[in-house]
Fold:
Amino acid sequence: MIVEHLLGEGMNIKTIAVIGAGQMGNGIAQVASSAGFQVVLIDMNDALLEKAMATIQFSLGKLVSKEKISQSEADDSIARISTGTDRSLCQNADLVVEAIPEVLEWKLDLFKELDSICPDHTILATNTSSISITKIAGATRRPDRVIGMHFMNPVPLMKLVEIINGEETSAETNATIVQAAESMGKVPLTSEDFPGFISNRILCPMLNEAIFCLQEGVATREAIDGIMKLGMNHPMGPLALADYIGLDTVLHIMDVLYDGFGDSKYRAAPLLRRMVDAGLLGKKTGRGFYTYN
Ligand code: CAA
Structure:
């Protein structure tokens, strides 16, 4: 079944290409296909793509077992996703969502390439959590059709998509992406393009402060996390959340805030930097503030 999404004043989106099949990319592919879009998921090799499809199967299976979706809806979602390693597959996409690692040069190269592969109408979105949308858009000849589409982890469960307008993002592009996110069952909220946007400008300094507290011996990790969970009704404590996001990502965002604002209040905790140097990146490496199987 191919569903054409008629997006109000925006353009019609039928096919979405997702580049990068990691934790964020496979979640984005899942929610896009579950919304009825045709999806092509692209990464560098078949092993990464197979792992991503297994993750999507597992996640859809969870949603079926909780009766949030039916088995046939899960099957239809899987059927709408194709995979490949060739970026030229993006030539049929109305929207490309990039979810590759947070390396500026990689993103600039990719957007330049996408600009030459994709038809004029294609919107190029980035799931970056901290890199300037305006800078990424500058690698293309279509800065009006480049936008931030920042999903939250875990993508299938989190309601928010933070939409970020670059300096030249058009109102039509924003309207199209807002409606695409809504049709994926998400709540899109728009931020302008300043360091960390809204989500990470507020979240990461809080995580960083929790790491300072641990470093200074103010409390144990259990007390720090417990105080924030029970006292503020946060679903996870800040140290557990930093592990979940990845300590390298949290450090990268703190450095972006520090460089972008030139304000010492955004300095990264030395303990955070030391853990990243030691390769203790949190859940993904099995060790961070906590140990994982
Ligand atoms: N798909 C389907 N089901 C999933 C899932 C997924 N991707 N991930 C988890 N689940 C399931 C779990 O398997 C679990 O199922 P069971 O009950 O059958 O075991 C269920 O959802 C609930 O999970 P948990 O019981 O483990 O715990 P929970 O109720 O606390 O929910 C959570 C988990 C949604 C992650 C919750 O702890 C939470 O909201 N944590 C905060 C997450 C957060 O802040 N995310 C934003 C990070 S910042 C970011 O993403 C942006 C950035 O740029 C850094």
